[in-house]
């Protein structure tokens, strides 16, 4: 396992997204999820990603239990900003300074830690100047409660404004073969400012792994059943795109998931994918993607098969899309 850099922060070249252990991708099992986190740490996947909204706080509690006796071995990232009710309802985005502090204190308690290594604003609040939000986050750094700051799904100009208030270590945005929106201005801005890039959903929410063949393959309670890219004609069109990944994976003697992850890893020493899983076998499969070497011909073949905008359907619902790239 080699290191990459997110601004001043050193992290392994692949991280672990913990969201699905508690919500969105069907029923989880806390015991197995903790085993996955422990195995990840053994394999050198020590960059753990969670958020206060995942499972309405339950995911942070889960991660906290998992790292209680090995805090010094992990780089811990969490997020705030997406407001949810106790019943799980989504209630908007909040970046007000008082809310920043309230969320941080709650996250520290749920995680059972004194300091968060990387604290993201999960979504940008259009009603609160980014300077106010980052200013409040910077106070947390001064107090030792947070080490580094990050943004998620923020537009280039927002990143620039935030970076003037306090150095931004990382921007987290969806990025994969079928979500190539960050290429161009977003990644260029990050590199100009020295901001690292964290790629979430690098496997296209599982589609690029080639494990799903019809919408009914998703378990009950899985949000992909209602996701634009997994519905109707979009599902079949996106399935057709995956065929080239599957074909090349066979030629490279790896799995489609490993090929898709290798492609993201090859995008730069400042790009760190955080594939999520709650299964040991998929964790180990993902880590083995680091052994896949892609030639220039392989990269061109994938670029040709998945040009920007190739995926059918938006990457979120209409409401969800209104909260990205702000």
Account of the protein in words:
The chain is an alpha/beta fold and 326 residues long. It is 38% helix and 17% strand. It has eleven helices and twelve strands. The chain has helices at residues 30-42, 58-67, 97-111, 130-142, 156-165, 185-193, 232-252, 256-265, 280-287, 296-305, 318-321, and strands at residues 3-6, 9-12, 16-17, 47-49, 75-80, 82-84, 90-93, 116-121, 146-152, 168-174, 196-200, 271-273. An eight-stranded parallel β-sheet has the order 3-4-5-8-9-10-11-12. Helix 2 (58-67) links the parallel strand 4 and strand 5. Helix 1 crosses helix 2 (58-67). The two termini are 34 Å apart.
Question: Could you give a quick summary of the protein structure above?
Answer:
Helix content is 38%, strand content 17%. With 326 residues, the chain is α/β, with parallel strands linked by helices.
Rg over C-alpha atoms, rounded to the nearest angstrom: 19 Å
Would you report the number of β strands? Answer: 12
What structural category characterises the helix and strand content? alpha/beta
Q: Which sequence of SSEs, written as H and E, runs from N to C?
A: EEEHEHEEEHEHEHEHEHHEHHH
> Alpha-carbon distance between the termini?
34 Å
The amount of helix comes to 25-40%
Unreliable stretches covering 5 or more consecutive residues? none
Largest sheet: 8 strands, parallel
Mean pLDDT: 95
The side-by-side strand order for the widest beta sheet comes to 3-4-5-8-9-10-11-12
């Amino acid at each position: 396992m080699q290191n990459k850099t997110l601004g001043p922060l050193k992290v392994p070249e692949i991280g672990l997204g913990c969201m699905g252990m508690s919500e969105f991708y069907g029923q989880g099992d806390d015991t197995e999820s903790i085993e996955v986190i422990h195995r990840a740490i053994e394999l050198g996947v020590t960059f753990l990603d969670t958020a206060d909204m995942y499972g309405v706080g339950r995911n942070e509690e889960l991660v906290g239990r998992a790292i209680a006796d090995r805090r010094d071995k992990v780089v811990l990232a969490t997020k705030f900003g997406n407001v949810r009710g106790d019943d799980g309802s989504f209630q908007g985005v909040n970046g007000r300074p008082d809310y920043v502090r309230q969320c941080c204190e709650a996250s520290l308690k749920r995680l059972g830690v004194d300091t968060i290594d990387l604290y993201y604003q999960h979504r940008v609040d259009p009603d609160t100047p980014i300077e106010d939000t980052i200013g409040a986050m910077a106070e947390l750094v001064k107090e030792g409660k947070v080490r580094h700051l990050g943004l998620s799904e923020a537009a280039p100009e927002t990143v620039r404004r935030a970076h003037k208030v306090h150095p931004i270590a990382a921007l987290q945005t969806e990025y994969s073969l079928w979500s190539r929106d960050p290429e161009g201005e977003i990644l260029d801005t990050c590199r100009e400012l020295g901001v690292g890039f964290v790629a979430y959903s690098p496997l296209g929410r599982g589609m690029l792994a080639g494990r799903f063949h019809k919408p009914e393959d998703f378990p009950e309670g899985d949000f992909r059943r209602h996701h634009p890219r997994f519905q109707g004609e979009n599902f079949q069109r996106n399935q057709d795109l995956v065929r080239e990944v599957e074909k090349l994976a066979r030629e490279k003697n790896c799995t489609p998931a490993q090929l898709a992850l290798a492609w993201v890893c090859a995008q730069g020493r400042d790009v760190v994918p955080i594939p999520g899983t709650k299964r040991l076998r998929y964790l180990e499969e993902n880590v083995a993607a680091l052994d896949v070497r892609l030639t220039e011909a392989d990269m061109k073949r994938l670029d040709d098969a998945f040009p920007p905008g190739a995926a059918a359907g938006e990457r979120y619902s209409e409401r969800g899309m209104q909260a990205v790239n702000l």
